Inverse folding.
């Protein structure tokens, strides 16, 4: 690798702006209809999502998802499924068919014409980027009758199957270890009758039914908190209203055009709200519809396109190669994941790692049973190890508004976390479980149902997550990274520092010191890899990473001294000497036998806690640590899902290794899914968001790496020499870096602000 420092004399480059027109060559285009839901395309506005497909019988169908549609069991449900049927149907006997996902404008365009007729139809399917509405609009060359049919499955109260793991996570609920204390039911939806020109339906978590929130607090010894808060599930109501141009209600589940029309215009208005009565929810929904109807159709469409055009301009990575299609596939994978993230990342709740809002019918592979569109493996909780991976790449991509729902969820859960600390330990501070309901408690299956009254609350049932609390440190690191990019001082004072103080207090007060005055983090888990050990590498590295940054940011001198003092008490990372005589990081002190999975806690010193890596001292230690990390799991479980090997390879400057890992990962599409960005379900569910998140993080790290210890910006630290690229990415200090690499030479570079050009260090890979 050759390293050069970019000086002012070397900056005499011809600069151009990369148009987002390049995005159009990655549009997903199908020339035949789909067989079923596995042939759906995802589209959304950040909070509302739809899986869209045209079936071979010519009907247009779509599932509706929303980020905050949580049932009384805390499951994230689909709102419903709609079928749009045209008569005569131009999609049925095909002459020409084309379904295209247009990234630039954020729309799915469907064209069709029938054999032997002049009937041609173009439909435009979009979810308004600025308003809570799904639109299906278009033109027909001939008079067409239009029907919209709600096809629903939650029509009556049913007892849930004990094998349906969308309730319990990854194992059957009837096993004694995970035994639920009550039967679990799926409650029905309500279909509103008496509508003349619309259909309305909703799911309402009733006030007189059980709530998993209340049960959870009581089960985990936190019932006192109920007087300080309110149930976020009780009376939560979610559903939608559908209306169309000159359409009338035929039944509570069907709309039909009053006469044949050449103009097709259907609007779907989803809503989630916590209201005292169902009638109040309907009133709120109708107000939402009326507000939207007052807007100019031309202006909302123009504003929608403007949002998506600006989204693709804020950052990009486009890769080219003359030698193989691998470069295109990797580049396309990055774009597809960025699309899915944007479609589901601006809602009231964070992205679900196990499918986001784009799950379809859930067929369990172990028994072949279809549990319906509300199914997702690994249950209803947020799992930090997985969730975080969709969020790290948002910062470098400049998607700053999309990371806020994650920060908000944890800040909203902070009062409960502090209450738990007082209840369990008797002092102030906060930690967050690895597997967590959105309000901040453990999953009950991990904590344990029906525990003995005198049991230690720390000794939860799940050994995998019993002492796994490092997520609070990592979220603090993510907040620090966000702040260094945005320089948002309001965020610093209102979110970052209040959160970080409580996390630091937990580690300061929870653990003892040894005779040398160093913190002894025991008992602890090294992720889910090694159990009940001392001083795991992620915790030690994480505290060493965040404490000096916090000391730098606080203005109160006593608090600054506190962070510095505590940093001095953090032990050194455990190290060993390899057979080649090179020092490397160990996962913990005197670790018991590892599970030999693929989490690699020792590699957390590379990412997310950048203590070692390109441009930092002792790069050889980083390289040896990754080389010795375990690789004992087989096949897809060693290389996909949340396995972070391509990130670690990029962090140590291994361009060849990073590329070798990225190419097959970018091809790892769910075998039954037609959409090329629906990643397979290794460790998660389809579409697998942690798999796509790792891919984005790794590709970004191959192009750009920064750290909090200097102002330097390292370009191409692990970039393959045979790949040309153009890119625009974000760096700390409100900085953007835009450039173009051809044949191993940087032919264009634009840094904003220009004062940051002096901080650029270019690493050209010549191997």
């Amino acid at each position: 690798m050759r390293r050069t420092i970019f000086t002012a004399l070397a900056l005499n480059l011809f600069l151009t702006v990369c148009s987002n027109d390049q995005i159009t060559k990655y549009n997903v285009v199908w020339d035949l209809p789909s067989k079923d839901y596995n042939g759906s395309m995802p589209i959304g506005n950040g909070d509302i999502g739809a899986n869209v497909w045209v079936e071979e019988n010519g009907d247009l169908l779509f599932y509706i998802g929303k980020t905050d549609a949580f049932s009384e069991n805390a499951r994230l449900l689909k709102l419903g499924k709609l079928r749009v049927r045209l008569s005569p149907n131009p999609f049925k006997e095909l002459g020409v068919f084309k379904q295209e996902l247009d990234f630039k404008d954020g729309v799915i365009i469907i064209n069709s014409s029938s054999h032997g007729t002049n009937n041609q139809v173009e439909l435009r399917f979009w979810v308004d980027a600025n308003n809570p509405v799904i639109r299906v609009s278009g033109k027909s060359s001939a008079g067409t009758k239009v029907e919209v049919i709600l096809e629903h499955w939650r029509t009556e109260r049913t007892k849930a199957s004990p094998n349906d793991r969308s309730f319990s996570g990854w194992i059957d609920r009837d096993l004694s270890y995970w035994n639920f204390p009550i039967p679990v039911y799926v409650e029905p939806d309500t279909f509103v009758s008496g509508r003349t020109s619309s259909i309305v339906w909703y799911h309402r978590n009733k006030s007189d039914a059980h709530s998993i929130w209340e049960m959870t607090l009581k089960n985990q010894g936190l019932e006192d908190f109920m007087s300080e808060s309110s149930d976020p599930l009780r009376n939560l109501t979610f559903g939608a209203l559908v209306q169309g141009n000159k359409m009338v209600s035929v039944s509570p589940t069907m709309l039909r055009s009053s006469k044949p029309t050449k103009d097709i215009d259907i609007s779907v208005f989803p809503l989630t709200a916590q209201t005292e009565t169902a009638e109040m929810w309907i009133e709120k929904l109708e107000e939402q519809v009326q507000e939207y109807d007052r807007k100019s159709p031309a202006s909302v469409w123009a504003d929608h396109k403007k949002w998506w055009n600006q989204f693709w301009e804020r950052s990009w990575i486009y890769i080219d190669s003359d030698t193989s299609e691998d470069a295109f596939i990797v580049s396309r994978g990055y774009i597809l994941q960025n699309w899915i993230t944007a479609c589901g990342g601006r809602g009231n709740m964070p992205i679900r790692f196990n499918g986001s809002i784009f799950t379809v019918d859930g067929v369990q592979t172990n028994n072949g049973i279809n549990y319906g569109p509300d199914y997702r493996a690994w249950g209803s909780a947020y799992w930090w190890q997985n969730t975080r991976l969709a969020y790290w790449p948002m910062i470098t991509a400049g998607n700053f508004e999309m990371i806020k729902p994650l920060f908000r969820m944890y800040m909203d859960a902070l009062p409960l976390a502090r209450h738990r600390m007082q209840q369990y330990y008797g002092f102030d501070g906060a930690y967050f479980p690895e597997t967590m309901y959105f309000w901040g408690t453990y999953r009950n299956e991990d904590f344990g149902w029906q525990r003995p009254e005198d049991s230690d609350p720390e000794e939860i049932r799940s050994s995998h997550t019993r002492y796994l609390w490092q997520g609070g440190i990592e979220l603090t690191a993510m907040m620090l990274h966000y702040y260094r990019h945005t320089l948002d001082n309001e965020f610093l004072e209102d979110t970052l520092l209040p959160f970080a103080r409580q996390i630091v207090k937990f580690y300061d007060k929870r653990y003892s010191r040894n005779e040398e005055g160093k913190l002894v983090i025991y008992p602890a888990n090294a992720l889910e890899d090694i159990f009940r050990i001392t001083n795991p590498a992620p915790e030690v590295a994480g505290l060493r990473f965040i404490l000096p940054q916090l000391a730098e940011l606080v203005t109160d001198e006593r608090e600054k001294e506190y962070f510095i003092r505590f940093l001095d008490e953090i032990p050194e990372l455990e190290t060993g000497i390899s057979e080649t005589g090179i020092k490397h990081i160990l996962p913990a002190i005197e670790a018991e036998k590892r599970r030999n999975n693929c989490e690699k806690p020792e590699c957390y010193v590379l990412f997310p806690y950048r203590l070692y890596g390109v441009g930092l001292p002792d790069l050889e230690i980083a390289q040896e640590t990754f080389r010795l990390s375990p690789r004992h799991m087989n096949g897809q479980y060693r290389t996909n899902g949340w396995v972070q090997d391509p990130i670690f390879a990029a962090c140590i400057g291994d361009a060849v290794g990073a590329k070798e890992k990225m190419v097959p990962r970018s091809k790892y599409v769910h075998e039954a899914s037609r959409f090329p960005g629906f990643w397979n379900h290794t460790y998660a569910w389809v579409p697998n968001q942690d798999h796509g998140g790792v891919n984005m993080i790794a590709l970004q790290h191959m192009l750009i790496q920064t750290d909090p210890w200097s102002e330097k910006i390292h370009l191409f630290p692990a970039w393959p020499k045979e790949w040309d690229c153009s890119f625009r990415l974000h760096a700390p200090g409100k900085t953007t870096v835009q450039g173009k690499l051809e044949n191993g030479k940087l032919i264009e570079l634009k840094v904003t602000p220009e004062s940051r050009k002096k901080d650029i260090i270019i690493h050209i890979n010549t191997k």
Observations:
- The domain at 31-303 is CATH 2.70.98.50 (Beta-galactosidase; Chain A, domain 5).
- The chain is about 30% helix and 25% strand.
- The two ends are 7 Å apart (CA to CA).
